[in-house]
Design brief:
By secondary structure, the protein is an alpha+beta fold. It has helices at residues 23-30, 63-78, 83-86, 97-114, and strands at 2-14, 39-51, 81-82, 118-125, 131-134. A 5-stranded mixed β-sheet has the order 3-1-2-4-5. A hairpin with a 5-residue loop joins strand 4 and strand 5. The two termini are 18 Å apart. The protein binds nickel (II) ion (NI).
Length: 136
Amino acid sequence: MIFITRRETFNAAHRLFRPEWDDEKNLQVFGKCSNPNWHGHNYVLYVTVKGDVDPKTGFLINLKDLSKILNENVVEKLDHKNMNLEVDFMENRMSSTENLAIGIWEQIEKPIRDLGAVLHCVKVYETEKNYVEYFG
Ligand code: NI
C-alpha cells in the first residue's frame, strides 16, 4: 500500500450564520466568519489517495488524471465563488471547513475509485493555522 497526495488551491467566499439568530449571537458563535457582508479565504486542499503501484507505469495513480478530477469536481465549482450561494454540493450545509471537507470527499470518492485508487484523506486548510482532515 502506498499513498500519494495532490495539492490544489482555491479562493472562495462564505458566511457562517444561523438565520434564526441575530447578528450579535452569530458573531458570538462564529466570530469574524459571521460577517453579514461575506468574506473570503484562500483555501488549500490536500487529497491523499492510496493503492498499489502499477508495475507497468510505476504509478499508483496518474497525477494528471487526479488533478483533472479535482479541478472538474472541486476547484472549478469553488474558485472565486460564494460557497453559501452558488456551490451545488454545499447547498443546505453550513459552510464550515468541516462540511467543506465532507462535501469534497463526496464529490471525488467515486471518480478516484473509477481510476483504480482509493481516497484516503481530504485535508482542507481554511487558514494557515486551521485545517480539517476527513477520512470518510
Ligand atoms: Ni470564514
